[in-house]
Structures are given as C-alpha cells and as structure tokens.
Design brief:
Length: 199
C-alpha cells in the first residue's frame, strides 16, 4: 500500500510544520484542499504567493502588514496618546480581535530572558522609549503574558519609563499566571484591559 506521491507528501510535510497541525491534520487539510482545488487550493496558493512577496514589519510598531506603515499606525483616530505594548504580533492580533482597545501598539519582538540571552537591546525597547518621547504618549499599557519573563519585562519597562510623566499600567484580572494572550477568549481580554492597574 502506498501513500501520496512526492509533491503531495512534501506539501503535507510543510503543512505539518505549522502550529496546531500534526501529520494527520496536515494530511486531512491537504486532501480537502485537493478535493476543492478551484475554490480553496488555487486561491490559497495565490494568496500565499502575494503575502510572501509583500508581508513586512511595520516600521513604527512592528505589526505585520503589506505596507511600510500598518493601518493601525496610519490611522489618526488611533493617535489618542495610549500605547499598548505586546510581546509579539499574535498578541496584537488577539487584542484587536477583542475590539476594546482603540489606541496604538508597540510589538517588542519577545521578552527579556537571562536563560535565552535576550536583553533589552535585543528587543524593541529602545524604540519604545523613542515613541513615548516623540508621539505624545500619556499612557503605556503593558499587555505582556503573565509568565515570569513577561512580568520581568513589564517591570523593566516600567522602571525605564519612570520619571517620564507617562502612566504605566498593565492588564489585571482575567489573565491567568502562565497564560498567553493569543489563547484567551475576547471577553477575558476585554475584562483584563478594562481592569488594568498601575505598576
């Protein structure tokens, strides 16, 4: 008994490397795409090609966009003096999905970690200081994951911004210790944002 041929097997192997998909889920996904080639596989291939060419980091906040400046940073309505700091783009997208935050974002690109040799200059912390100075920021919300490294990073940023006159707050209730924003439901994120507290 034989399985899929070389190209199909290669596609399955690539799909299996995506987060949340193992070999069995990848096989089912590929088989479904092949069966619906015209309405699913061909548009997906075309979209993947376009995004592979055009996707880039927003020069201001670090969001992933197809433009140099993402739509959030380009929107004057979002320039309300509030800046939400997140660990990565998945967290930014989770906050946007909740629909409760109307300011701008700053993606750090990770968290401080002595074990992984990640220091402040390895993250976008120097850029954060510059944005606070230049953009008339009045509040920085630290929406970092409730992990040891996330909280260490939050305290470091709070210390860095101490004395600037900017209010530094963090998400409060609803975010469990060890929890990650990308896995939380919209209601939990909404409650945590409303109940933020000063650091």
């Amino acid at each position: 008994m034989t399985g899929p041929d070389g190209d199909i097997e290669a596609l399955i192997a690539l799909m299996a490397r995506l987060p949340g998909l193992g070999p069995r889920s990848a096989r089912r996904a590929v088989l479904s795409m092949i069966k619906k080639r015209g309405v699913l596989m061909e548009p997906l291939a075309s979209a993947l090609q376009r995004v592979a060419i055009s996707a880039r980091e927003c020069v201001t906040c670090g969001n992933i966009s197809t433009r140099e400046t993402c739509v959030i940073c380009a929107s004057e309505k979002r320039a309300n003096g509030t800046l939400c700091v997140v660990e990565d783009v998945a967290d930014l997208w989770a906050m946007e999905r909740s629909g409760v935050f109307a300011g701008r974002y700053h993606v750090l690109g990770g968290v401080l970690s002595a074990l992984d040799n990640v220091g402040p200059d390895d993250l976008r912390i120097p850029l954060l200081r510059g944005r606070v100075r230049e953009e008339g920021i009045t509040e920085v919300i630290l929406a970092l994951n409730a992990t040891v490294d996330g909280q260490t990073t939050a305290h470091y940023i709070a210390d860095e911004l101490h004395g600037t006159g900017v209010a530094v707050t963090s998400l409060a209730q609803g975010v469990p210790i060890g929890g990650e924003l990308d896995y939380l439901d919209d209601g939990t994120i909404s409650a945590a944002l409303r109940a933020r507290r000063a650091l």
